[in-house]
Amino acid sequence: MEDLRRLWVEDGRQQMEVPLKRDKAKHYVFCKVKSVRGKIQIHRDQPISQSTLSRQLKTFGEIAGFKWSLFTHRFRYGGGTILNESGLVSDAKQNLIMKHADIRTFLNHYLPRRINTDMQALMRGLKPDSAMMRAVTRMGRWIDPRRPRELTDAQKATVEHDPELQKAIRKRDAFSKKLQRSQKKTSWKLDKLDKLKRGVTNTRNRLLYALRQRVREEFDEEQAVLDIERQLAGTAILDEEAKEQLQIEEQLQIEEQLLPQQIHLLGKLMTWPTSLSVEAEWQRRNEATEAVRLYCDVLEGGPRRGRRPKRTVPVKEPQKHSLPREEVIAPTESPPLTPSPSRHEIALQEAGEDIRTAAKPRACFQCYGNPAGCDNRRLKQYSRHTGLLRHFRAVHLDDRHCNYCNESVDNDMCWRRHTVDKHRLNVRYLDYPQDL
């Protein structure tokens, strides 16, 4: 880029072409990306599929906080509206840009049905505030990054008690028991059982999707009430329920419970003004300062000047009834205080113990033995042994060097034998989950 900025159009010419390299001229900007055995593969000569792009745009829109779904055609809606309202483009040129045969296509399918005209200003003979009306009617008005994207475990559990899902589960279980008792299992019966299983999965997913949509729609009204009450109260932590929720969230994120003193400190520092008087602002400042003082429990001020005074060791008085010289017992020295192990050291010991002794380990020996890897990968213990098997088959099945034992193997068969004999890990068990 620095070399490109140093170029200029020479005299007597009006352009200077910057040709692309021939090996990169046919590369797509939005190219196809695949994940094979946990490794990302980029195919620059293949375009990204429409379904993948639409799914990613929808996810990006939810992350940004949009209330409505974001899809590719919204860019055409916005661009067509700007062209139509600019007054600088004729209908014929607009049809050419939008690739429409007639202007009625835009009027029927692209023209927004939400009127963004300042009717009050027009009726009163005033200049309309176009910027404000556009801000009120645009899609970005509903952006809120706090809008939930996923359901909680409690919300997901409520779906399991839905009558429609329970009916599908009972129908599947009844047919499964009937098929187990049957001596002749035809392909028709097996296909029907698979269809019932897919029906249960589809019903659960549909109910979860409907619940997620309902939670996202109800978020605006419920969160608006909480925001109004919090601002009127002048504090970020409104009630005891918010304090308990803050403790739970902090415990889930950093595995340490937030102390009540810390919650009180945050409640006094994160406040909003509730009055226009100067005295109220002074009172708010004094309360925050007092909260900081109570939490720190240290007087403000710099360090002392000069050297610190030495501590005087108290002199013990001699005992009246002392033991004979040969029976004097030497004072036992107290053992040195060893610092308590940190959470990182404890997790490292637990992962190493699991790899060495567990019959069905849950920690990956390859990730653990890689000193250059991040701590999250090295210390991770899966909830089940099958989770470790899936991780190993997706990421480490093609490896030929054991990071834990520092040994190398020649082929895939020797590598599988090494994992079974030394680390009790057999990826073939993934095909038979009932054995686990």
UniProtKB/TrEMBL annotation:
Protein origin, superkingdom: Eukaryota
Keywords: DNA recombination
Region annotated Disordered, chain positions: 304-325
Tyr recombinase domain sequence ranges: 1-124
Signal peptide stretch: none
Alphabetized Pfam families for the sequence: DUF3435 (PF11917)
Start-end of Basic residues biased regions: 304-313
PROSITE patterns, sorted: TYR_RECOMBINASE (PS51898)
GO molecular function: DNA binding
GO biological processes: DNA integration; DNA recombination
Record-linked PANTHER family: FINGER DOMAIN PROTEIN, PUTATIVE (AFU_ORTHOLOGUE AFUA_6G09300)-RELATED, FLUG DOMAIN PROTEIN
Protein name as catalogued: Tyr recombinase domain-containing protein
